[in-house]
């Protein structure tokens, strides 16, 4: 056995938003909420990480993914978890760990919230009263601050650079800890400069297909991918997670077990 533990960091696509037990969106026609919100700390039973956990009882699988998460928050989750983790060594040997960094889009950063809490700002989203309810004055000020930040202090190049730093930092952290590392990147969100930098740093061998832009049809049929493997808000459904797990994740795990 060449792997003892898999730690996953990611956003809603690794969390399983859109699966049967994690459906929550606004109907585009009726403008009404469908489904119900569930805790961000409890991923779907149908997501690919949960399928991995069910298949391999002798491997510890930890899914730290959260909806709306940013790349720097994923890096923070990774180091915070490993600092607190008390997984015992086996005969003094550190357990073999695989980290899967399921990267998010680039328009997300960390921000401070109430009571000093940190969370991710999805910069492309504005306040939606149908989704989040009527804001109180403090929330209105918060969303105004976000709008002013986007208008005056942010541009796409900053988001791309933050994403690049987060991915490279996660890779370097794993190297220092002796962890295996893979990164699933939603490449359509990343510009050529970022990809060229990653390739220059030797990252190509660590990149794997991501579930967000995965071709479930096997023949680049966008209609099939959307109608059969995604839910209304374009998140991957349980059928898509099953295909992604069988085609991408499981072969990677089997390869490491048989090394």
Structural write-up:
The protein is of the alpha/beta class and 259 residues long. The protein has one domain: SGNH hydrolase (Rossmann fold). Helix content is 41%, strand content 15%. The protein has helices spanning 12-15, 48-55, 71-84, 129-132, 137-152, 156-177, 192-200, 222-229, 238-257, and strands spanning 5-9, 24-26, 33-35, 60-63, 97-102, 108-112, 118-122, 180-184, 207-208. The strands form three sheets. The chain has a five-stranded parallel β-sheet, sandwiched between helices. A two-stranded antiparallel ribbon has the order 2-3. It has a two-stranded antiparallel ribbon with strand order 6-7. A hairpin with a 6-residue loop joins strand 2 (24-26) and strand 3. Helix 3 runs parallel beside helix 6. It starts with a strand and ends with a helix.
Quick tags:
five-stranded parallel beta sheet; Rossmann fold; 259 residues
- Major sheet: size, sense and barrel closure? 5 strands, parallel
Q: In the residues, how many domains can be counted? A: 1
CATH architecture descriptor name: 3-Layer(aba) Sandwich
**On the 0-100 scale, what is the average pLDDT?**
89
CATH superfamily label? SGNH hydrolase
* Separation, N- and C-terminal Cα atoms: 8 Å
Query: β content, as a range?
Result: 5-15%
